[in-house]
Design a protein that fits this description.
Elements lengths: L10 E5 L4 E5 L3 H4 L6 E8 L6 E3 L9 E3 L4 E4 L3 E7 L2 H14 L5
Antiparallel strand pairs: 1-2, 1-7, 2-3, 3-5, 3-6, 4-5
Length: about 100
């Protein structure tokens, strides 16, 4: 990953240790923090999972964001920023996170 710019929420990257595409879910304020060196990500898969959000027609990639599999990734493990998910898909991801963690909306 380029050291010049931190990843942004909604960007799709290749996670080099697993060889899977992941979507950055953490807020941009935290992504820019050089002290942690980590971001919150969820894998992008081809098939739906129990807690997943489908990419929409307006997204440059297809598949499903597997919210229940979210985890941390080091900045150095992210490569080849492919694209940015649409605002509509990010809104659906927000609602899924609220539901998964039983947060107030």
């Amino acid at each position: 990953m380029s050291a010049q710019r931190p990843p942004k929420r909604g960007e799709v990257y290749m996670h080099t240790p697993t060889g899977r595409r992941v979507v950055v879910l953490s807020d941009n304020r935290f992504n820019a923090d050089p002290h942690t060196g980590r971001v919150l990500v969820a894998p992008l898969g081809r098939r739906p999972a129990p807690v997943s959000v489908p990419c929409g027609d307006q997204d440059p990639v297809g598949g499903f964001v597997h919210i229940a599999e979210l985890g941390q990734a080091s900045l150095g493990s992210l490569a080849d920023s492919a694209c940015m998910l649409s605002g509509h898909t990010l809104d659906r991801i927000n609602r899924a996170l609220v539901t998964l963690f039983d947060l107030p909306y």
